[in-house]
Every structure is written in structure tokens, then in C-alpha cells.
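Input sequence (392 aa), recorded before submission:
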Amino acid sequence: MSALKTVLPVLAVTTTAQALVALAMLTLPAIAPEMAPALGVPARLVGWWISLSYGMAMLTSLMGAVLVRRLGAARTTQLALLLMCAGTLANAVAWLPAILAGAVLVGLGYGMTNPAASHLLAQRAAARHRNLVFSIKQTGVPLGGTVAGLMAPALTVAFGWQAAPAAVAVLGLGLAAAVMPARAAWDADRDPTAPLKANPFEGLAVIWRAPALRGLSLAGFAYAAVQLSLSTFLVTMLVADLGWTLVEAGLLLSAVQVTGVAGRILSGLVADRLAGGRPTLIGLGLFTAGFAVATGALAAGSPVVAVYGVLVCYGTAALGWNGVYLAEVAHAAPPGQIPRVTGASLFFTYGGVLVGPPAFAALQGLTGSYTATYALAAIPALAGAALLAWRR
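Predicted structure, C-alpha cell format:
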């Protein structure tokens, strides 16, 4: 019971922080059909905004271990939230350079959250519950997507598209302030004299020398490319290819994210109690590929129940892997190097996000169809599952 009391406050804060940075990432995709005309650009270019953000996240994920050591995990989380708030405020400016600056700032904040959270949770979570605890923390991503799907279109319809990113900034400031009372205790292990000039690529070298970590990280690259393509283009696909309204599409985006929450918790339970981490990740890749192909069969006039059924199942599988993945990375990391190895492994997953949405946008330009492009997402999902099976 004492161990549970120790981990629950940290789990609550890290999950909420993950939800808010995910909300910041997915707010613009949720309002892209309304925002893009105001900026004079095609809606599909939101994929490039996502890629720029995750490109910045790649950089700070490598520096996350250094920041955690010097500042403390709680202070690093606060800094991440403040960067995210600055970025969302920039996103509320109807000027393309400001939107791009917002992508940079949101991405810098996003990349800091996971190394800090992994450091705090690995210290407090019992080994027998590790997959579940990390999976619960990672439910913050689909929870943030759920809020984005519900809140962003509604605020856009009521007050204009700029209201949605501004609201996200207010929420982020609130959580950054709420962490203050616990910061001293959570950051008791920090070293204020630790150098900030440590080699940021040291974690990448550790991963590349370890076959288990290398296979995990490459699979994370493939899975992340599929996951973010699903979340980034779902609303635009429903509006452009299936003829849904923005609010209807936002509701389905929220439903997909909700089932992603359930998928992450279920995956953590299966990994802890039944199958183990790697077999669970392999199964999720196979299910993701199957439902990606099914998405390619959707068209205007498809029954609403069928659309919900296919995309909800797609989201459950495609969004369900992250917590088990991070738990497996923490388990395979050398002693004392969990923040460094986590950040370096996330460099690969953010790389998948960097490549995935632009590749999706380019393929959509060639095929002329969002649904057909979703079907092609089965290829990286199968590749990731094959990597995990090969390196098992």
C-alpha cells in the first residue's frame, strides 16, 4: 500500500502532463479544415507542422537525461509545460511564421516529458506492475487526443479557431503551477553541478550496441509513423473523403482516442499477466495492419456504425503500444541509465513521427485519397512487428 501511495501522485502528474502536451500536438490537426483557409494553405500541410514539432522533440529527448540530472525530473516537467504554453500561444496568431514557431516550441516541450516521467516512475513502480504503470502514464496521449477532438472543434465553431490553442496554454500553466509543492521532494536526487554539455548521442550508442534495445527502437520508429498518421489526418479524411462535418469528425477522433486509452491499459495488463512485453507489441502491430487495410475500404456513404467500428478498432491497436514499449525499454536499459536510454529510444519513435505524416501527405497527393493512403499504413506496422519477432 505504501508503494501505491508513492507512485499514484507521480503517476497522476506525469499522465496529466503527457495529456496536455499531446493536446497541444493534436489541437491543430483537429481544426485544420477551418484553420488552413485562414492561413491560405491546404489542410494536409498540417502533417508538416506535426513533423516539425516532433523534429524538435527528437532533440530535447536526447537532452532529457541531462536536464533531469541537473534540474530534476519535476522541474524538467515544468519547463516542458512552459515551452508548450508558449508554443500554443504562438499557434493562436494568424500568421504562418508564428504557427511554425509554435511547432518548434511545442515540440521542444514535448520531448522533455517522457525521460522525466520514466525517471520518476521507474523509481517508484514495482517491477510486477511496471507495464501497467507505464501504460497508464501513456494513456495521457490518447486522453489529450480525446480532449482535442471534443474541445478544439467546439471552441472553433463557437469562437473561431484561435480560441482552441489559447485554451490549451491556460491548462498548461495551471499544471506547471500545481507541481510546485511536490518539486523539492521529487527532485531530491538531482545534481545541480551536473554538466549540461554531456554528449547527447551517448544514449544512441548504448541502444545501437544492444540488439534488444535496437530492435525495440526500430519497431518504435515504424509504429509511431502509423500512430501519428492516424491521429493527424483522421478528421481531414472524414471531412474530405466521407463528407462528414467538422464536429462529427471531431467526435469520432475523440472516440478513437478514448479507445486508445483502453487499449494502452489493456495492453499493459496483457503484458504483465499473460503474454509479456514483446509478444504483446507484436500482436498490436498485426492488428494495426489489419485495420489499416479495412480503413482503405471506407467511402462516402459507408454506414456510420461501420466507420466507427473500423476506426475505433484501428485506434485501439495503433495507439495501444506506447506504455508497454517504454516499460520494455526501461527493463532493458543498463542500471542508472533509464532517462538516457528512454530519451534516445524516443529519438527513434519521434523520427517515425517526423517521417510518417509527411510521407502520408505525399502519398495522399499521389493517390488522391486519404482512405487508400491509410491502407498503405499496414506496411510499416507489419515491418515493426517483424523487427520485434526477429529480435525476440
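Checked by second reader. The domain at 2-183+200-390 is CATH 1.20.1250.20 (Growth Hormone; Chain: A;).
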